[in-house]
Design a protein that fits this description.
mainly alpha; 431 residues; 84% helix; 16 helices
Length: 431
């Protein structure tokens, strides 16, 4: 299936996922309220931290090497299972230790059972990411998308139990159940009848070297996305965490368009040998994402003051202004992520690491300065500033690596318009 078709179908699937995710967020936020939602957000932060700090980019590198045919599928899977086992042991031990150490200072409002239950999400997420990566490297995005859509529907169904029993652990269990379903379904779609645990030193060496480059960038990106949650908890209340996380969660849904294309872009660009073709694909993608994302953001900005209290009740009104401010950063990073994926696909993820480090430093400094003064609005300002600066650095790196001009990147060419026109005609003919 072509890059354009994969991107289109991935977008459609992600729109459906967003719809069910949106309904789920309404159910969770309305039933739990800001305080318990804050408890859930803090609990889920633990497995997310473990995943981002301990995966060492292995799930990303497997896509890269399978896409450019450096290794075959069976070899990759056989060699990745020892890594999955090691990761599971490490994440459980380190995560358990952190829960014990940080319980009183960070997780004081979260029960031990909730934190330990949430911790089991980490190894399941890693295994699921590795297996999904293999499918993506084969271009089977339609399969990946179907699995994700089904999981979201099941997740919403489980979360409706909250209307009867208001308990954070129900939401944690829902996450665990859909991960199990995803892993089993993905494994079947890979059509591998057996595995043989292997440890090929050359494979592990290449996988680790490339993976570590991506790992540093992704780890810093995660801190850029979620460190503000910990700072808010340290400087304010758990209820503020719940309100701010709602604003962040809603704003990040806008990434559906850029994420849909970025997911397909990375393995596709990795498989292209000619540099000019790589640049042509990415510049056209960038311009399309820019137009659609801008339209979505303007629309959401205009309806935010009405839609948030209407859907989530008045207790979430403090999330309105942070949400509006976050839209600026989300727009910037929607574009930046397209460029970052191209840079990584060219084998230079270390350039993304530098950009993310600068963004993280800006984020931490501004959060510490602004949250004590203006609360969660300060966190939103810090995050938007950080995302924008990071994206500008992605832009500079891309222009140098891809050797394209600013005009080529931002202005539609005659060839671009012809490609778009042909694609629209194909879609209309099918209808």
């Amino acid at each position: 299936m072509s890059f354009v078709k994969n991107s289109f179908y991935t977008l459609i699937s992600n729109v459906i996922i967003i719809m069910f995710g949106f309904l789920t967020s309404v159910v969770i936020s309305r039933t739990l309220g800001p305080q318990l939602k804050g408890v859930y957000d803090l609990a889920i932060l633990m497995p997310t931290m473990m995943y981002n700090f301990l995966n060492f980019g292995q799930d990303v590198s497997i896509i890269y090497f399978l896409s450019n045919k450096t290794v075959d599928k069976k070899q990759a899977i056989n060699n990745m299972f020892p890594v999955v086992i090691a990761y599971s042991i490490a994440s459980t031990i380190i995560g358990g230790a952190l829960i014990f150490i940080l319980k009183e200072k960070v997780f004081n409002d979260v029960a031990y059972i909730t934190l330990l239950l949430a911790l089991t999400i980490s190894p399941l997420t890693f295994l699921n990411s590795v297996l999904s990566g293999v499918l993506k490297s084969e271009g089977k995005f339609n399969v990946v998308n179907k699995i994700q859509v089904i999981n979201k529907i099941i997740y919403l169904g489980i979360c409706t139990i909250l209307f009867i029993f208001v308990n954070v652990n129900i939401v944690i269990l829902a996450n665990i159940i859909i991960l199990f379903i995803s892993i089993i379904t993905t494994w079947r779609k890979l059509e591998i009848t057996s595995i043989k645990l292997s440890f090929d030193k050359e494979f592990q060496r290449k996988n680790t070297i490339y993976g570590f480059k991506s790992y540093l960038s992704n780890m810093i990106t995660f801190l850029n996305y979620r460190l503000d949650t910990l700072i808010i908890k340290a400087l304010t209340t758990t209820a503020n965490v719940g309100q701010y996380s709602l604003a962040v969660g809603l704003a990040e849904q806008i990434w559906v368009f850029s994420s849909s294309i970025s997911t397909v872009l990375f393995p596709y660009v990795s498989s292209i040998e000619e540099e000019k073709e790589k640049s042509r694909v990415t510049t056209l993608t960038f311009k399309i994402v820019l137009v659609f994302t801008l339209l979505i953001i303007v629309f959401l900005y205009l309806i935010a003051s009405f839609i948030i209290p209407f859907l989530y009740t008045d207790v979430y009104e403090p999330a309105i202004e942070p949400f509006k401010v976050l839209l600026i950063g989300i727009f910037s990073l929607s574009l930046g992520r397209i460029l970052a994926n191209d840079i990584a696909a060219r084998g230079k993820p270390e350039l993304n690491t530098l950009s993310n480090i600068v963004g993280l430093v800006v984020n931490v400094i501004l959060n510490l300065l602004l949250i004590p003064k203006i609360g969660i609005l300060g966190a939103a300002v810090a995050t938007s500033a950080s995302y924008t600066i990071t994206s500008i650095m992605f832009l500079i790196s891309f222009l140098r690596v891809a050797k394209v001009s600013t005009i080529e990147l931002f202005v539609f060419s005659k060839e671009d318009l012809e490609i778009i026109n042909k694609f629209i005609k194909k879609i209309l003919r099918r209808k």
